[in-house]
Amino acid sequence: xxxxxxxxxxxxxxxxxxxxxxxxxxxxxxxxxxxxxxxxxxxxxxxxxxxxxxxxxxxxxxxxxxxxxxxxxxxxxxxxxxxxxxxxxxxxxxxxxxxxxxxxxxxxxxxxxxxxxxxxxxxxxxxxxxxxxxxxxxxxxxxxxxxxxxxxxxxxxxxxxxxxxxxxxxxxxxxxxxxxxxxxxxxxxxxxxxxxxxxxxxxxxxxxxxxxxxxxxxxxxxxxxxxxxxxxxxxxxxxxxxxxxxxxxxxxxxxxxxxxxxxxxxxxxxxxxxxxxxxxxxxxxxxxxxxxxxxxxxxxxxxxxxxxxxxxxxxxxxxxxxxxxxxxxxxxxxxxxxxxxxxxxxxxxx
Length: 350
Ligand SMILES: NC(=O)C1=CN([C@@H]2O[C@H](COP(=O)(O)OP(=O)(O)OC[C@H]3O[C@@H](n4cnc5c(N)ncnc54)[C@H](OP(=O)(O)O)[C@@H]3O)[C@@H](O)[C@H]2O)C=CC1
Ligand SMILES: CC(=O)N[C@@H](CCC(=O)OP(=O)(O)O)C(=O)O
Fold this sequence. Notes:
By secondary structure, this protein is of the alpha/beta class. The chain has helices at residues 18-27, 48-51, 86-91, 111-118, 125-130, 136-144, 154-168, 198-201, 215-227, 260-270, 320-334, and strands at residues 8-13, 33-39, 63-64, 76-79, 98-101, 132-133, 148-150, 178-183, 206-207, 234-239, 246-253, 277-279, 297-303, 309-316. Strand 1 (8-13), helix 1 (18-27) and strand 2 form a beta-alpha-beta unit. Helix 1 packs across helix 11 (320-334) and helix 7 packs parallel to helix 9. Ligand 2 binds next to strand 10. It holds the Pfam family Semialdhyde_dhC_1. Residues 9-146 form the Semialdehyde dehydrogenase NAD-binding domain. The active site is at 154.
């Protein structure tokens, strides 16, 4: 039998944003995709080269508006639009299309939790029920049979990958998990906002969304599923003067008799053979500068000096494993491709 080499014809909605740019960067070298449609809102009508000069040498279609798209030549849509905007756009697409949504719109399975955190009733609740949460290393079986994949948020990816193996094995107390997370500014998107000006971000660091960030329920949803009971976390994000990267420092209390070596062993067992989720050698701390531009999630666990406590660290690139890279990993799963296809990018260093 000859192998199927028909290209997957993709559309990127929101191609003029940061995650859109990252999708294009990776997809132009993906051997099985053909980029057919790119959309923008304010940038619609412009060639990609004008919006993103780093892509000027690539053969890409001009940005158009969503309402101009002819969907008949498309197999899969990457939706990289602001959350809230996305649900109505996806509800209006032909139901034959596969969709990987990078926004938060379909990540929370419970409609009431969604309404409570996002401030309005969901406008496509039937799709919310259909969507499959695409944390690839944990839910690849579910993703393979999906039509609509909710690509996880950047902080939730960095927090859940190291914590889920520990909860699945009942190694840590579920009422004492502290997630201290730090993100680069690209996490906030390309839209001009005062809070993201150089003068507001450089030479300082600050916490935001304290005890109120909308990624807390997304993290809790995944951790509760793994633990088999309700888990609540203390989650505090911080904005760092860097462009890319998320570092999470997670503080846990271990179950009696459990050691940090057991936590490391659990992570190593869970992610043995995984191409992107990597447990570092004992004593080596993950760094954001070791994942830049790559789809890697680096993690490790350390004993604290306080008896019974441990520190679990993870690092990802928010635009790759935290968004566009994981979205492509999900597409690979949807089409039965090797998950590494188009994603074997070596991190950029320094
Ligand atoms: N940045 C990150 O690290 C991560 C982002 N995400 C999520 O991915 C999605 C995209 O994020 P990001 O790329 O950073 O965002 P950007 O702000 O950089 O880009 C947003 C894109 O959406 C388009 N857009 C804005 N409003 C509308 C509208 N009303 N109708 C149609 N298109 C619109 C913009 O077009 P134009 O500029 O032409 O107006 C642009 O192409 C968001 O939901 C975000 O939360 C998820 C994980 C990580
Ligand atoms: C630094 C920064 O501002 N980060 C964003 C998170 C980006 C992300 O993953 O958001 P979605 O859930 O919308 O996909 C924030 O805190 O809102």
